[in-house]
Amino acid sequence: MHLSSLLLCLSVTLLVKCAAGSEWCYTGCDHTPAHWEDISGTFCGEERQSPIDIVTGHVETDPKLLNFTFVNFTSQHVIKNITNNGHTVKCILEPNEVEVSGGGLNGTYSTIQFHFHWGDTEHHPGSEHTIDGHRYPMEMHIVSLKKALTVQQATEDSEGIAVLGFFLNATEDGEMSGPWSMLTSYLTNATDTEVNINHKISINDLIGNVDLTKFYRYMGSLTTPNCNEAVAWTVFQEPININKKLIQLFPMNTGLINVYRPTQALNKRQVFASPATPLPPSHPWCYDDHCDYSPSHWHLLPYSHCDGKRQSPVNIETQNIVTDKRLDAFAYTKFDDKHAIKYMINTGHSVKCVLKEDMVEVSGGGMGHVYSTLQFHFHWGSASHDSDGSEHTVDSKRYPMEMHIVNKRKDLTLDEAVQTPDGLAVLGFFIEATDGTKSSSSSSSSGGSEHQETNPTSDMDAWKKLTTYLSAIQNISSEIEVTKEISIDDLLGDVNRAEYYRYNGSLTTPSCNEAVVWTVFKEPIKVDHNLMMMFPTQAGYHDVFRPSQPLRSRTIYTTSASGAPGPIILFLLLACLCAFSYNLHL
To answer: What DSSP designation does 63 have?
Structure first.
């Protein structure tokens, strides 16, 4: 294929117009990212997809990832034109002018275009790759094709394409003049119209002072259909810093928002780093004794608070709890939204469901603040029929499972929240089986009353939908987008949310920050036993709960909504009847 034909095909990440099947989009059509794999002829459902979340604790240094060699990255005459193609803004380079090699790449690559991915506003970032779950405002991709290969050959070669990814970070005081100001002056909402670049702008002008020796490397795919698994990805550690007002021009002037693909499962791939890239020290922790840092040694981890005075979980002794009338009803926002769950991930310690940002909230319950709901996850025991794996216990009774809904104070960043005594609020729900066995016939946590019923308190259809995703995340760090309609309310069902325990505690995993207002609901959620067993069997690990920690001088409070025990109610009723009878005889 001639270069002119190649440029017609190369778009968002390379082959937009050449994608097989019907039109695709990010939002507003039948083929959104969750359905790209349904487009005929694409590879979007395969095992080596991009982008990914780069978990720095799992990255390995590769001594072969040395410095790059860039040809004509400093030339101010190689950016030929810019166009809004309806999916992104793309800048086409002069043919056969720009090259990249070195950096551990397998050969020399001809650089042909660069383009961008972004969100919608300053509060909704839109980079494609994330670092330890952090998403930057934007991402720039510089696309290069291995020299001497045709497009067809390049897309069939596992290293036929090299993409350099740069994060763009928004600053409050960055300059409003210079190369980024010049480039953004060409942004338009007119699609498929090529505009010649008249300003003198080089690629290096846009990159600025980013340290190009610090980068991550992994093998992946194009991030748009056809999603060909042919890309050697380089993601630079340091972001390009530009004024936030310039970043906001991308969605404002183009009319395009949220033009990024969600992160994909890493599966069995390894992410590497150049020798110059600083990596966090590897301090793996675990629940059992297969690593150096089991629960009894968590306090030895760097920056750990696990030996603090306010640790969680605890054993709730019902005879010592104190009623607090300030513990009123909660207010739940979007707990009924069936599309709030963004993706599910196997963290290696739990199964976590991450929610869409700034959608779900909880307030009330005597907490004094509005909290944004971030995620929920689970703790469980083994795959045996009578296994118990809840973290909290009630009068030393441990339930089969426990669900934690994690919330962050809305007025704080996450970094601030974990340093604030009430920065986080976690709602804990016990889970037990519906089949009338040991787990569903024991005394409940509501002051000794019995829960003999076998009818589920939750929607089994929702739990069936949720557990169907477990088989897709059997590898640690693997994740999958949740597309089925499941709300948090569906999972909780009609469980009593008026009666609960309250105490101040900590995260139950390292670094055990003492920043949590804990709410533990008295009535357990009832879930089919077979569905519960899918967590240990599919995730591949078991007994993922921290042992109870000393309560020390803390007090556990309870709501005043709980009714008096049966004998007391009967005594009061008899007393009233006696008084009524006495008055009748006067």
So the answer is: T
Token output for 523: 């009535």
Q: What is the dihedral of CA 505, 509, 515, 521, to 10 degrees?
A: -50
Quickly list DSSP for 363-430: EETT--S-EEEEEEEEEE--SSTT----SSEETTEE-SEEEEEEEEETTS-HHHHTTSTTSEEEEEEE
Strand 161-171 and strand 240-243: the pairing is: parallel
Question: Cβ neighbours of residue 46 under 8 Å, at least 6 residues apart?
Answer: 221, 227, 229
- Other CB atoms within a 10 A radius of the CB of residue 121 amount to 14
> What contacts 24+ positions apart, CB below 8 Å, involve 277-280?
277/59, 277/61, 277/214, 277/215, 277/216, 277/237, 278/214, 279/56, 279/57, 279/59, 279/61, 280/56, 280/57
Q: 253 by DSSP, 3-state: which? A: helix
Question: Do the beta carbons of residue 248 and residue 180 sit within 8 Å?
Answer: no
The DSSP bridge partners found for residue 394 are 316, 397
259-304 pLDDT, tens digit each: 999 999 998 899 999 999 988 766 678 998 778 889 999 998 877 8
Mean pLDDT of 240-255: 95
- SS3 state of residue 439: helix
Residue 562 reports pLDDT greater than 90: no
Give CA–CA dist 141/12, Å, rounded: 9
87 noted as active-site residue: yes
d(CA 30, CA 28): 7
The span from the first CA to the last CA of the chain, in angstroms, equals 109
Res 10: pLDDT? 42
How do strand 215-220 and strand 272-273 relate by DSSP bridges? antiparallel
The position carrying tokens 């069997």 is 537
CA distances 450 to 162, 297, 492, 498, 522, Å, are 63, 38, 20, 17, 12
pLDDT reported for residue 456 = 54
CA distance 502 to 557: 5
H/E segment holding residue 529: helix 529-539
Residues across the chain: 586
The single-letter DSSP state of residue 533 is H
- CA–CA separation, 27 vs 305, rounded Å? 43
Residue 123: per-residue pLDDT = 74
Residue type, 581: S
Return the structure tokens found at 63: 């001594």
Angle between helices 529-539 and 460-468 (to 10 degrees): 20
Residue pair 473/344 in contact (Cβ under 8 Å)? The answer is yes
Instruction: Label residue 84 by pLDDT band (50, 70, 90).
Output: very high
> What HEC string does 214-232 produce?
CEEEEEECCCCCCCCCCEE
- Tokens read off for 556: 């556990």
- Arithmetic mean of pLDDT, 144-151: 92
The closest alpha carbon to 338, from 480, 213, 523, 462, belongs to 462
Among 201-205, 379-383, 414-418, 445-449, name the one with the lowest average pLDDT: 445-449
Instruction: Yes or no: say if 298 and 510 are a contact pair by the CB < 8 Å rule.
Output: yes
Exactly one of 87, 115, 305, 379 is catalytic; name it.
Answer: 87
Q: With CA atoms as reference, report the closest residue to 537 among 461, 464, 469, 474.
A: 474
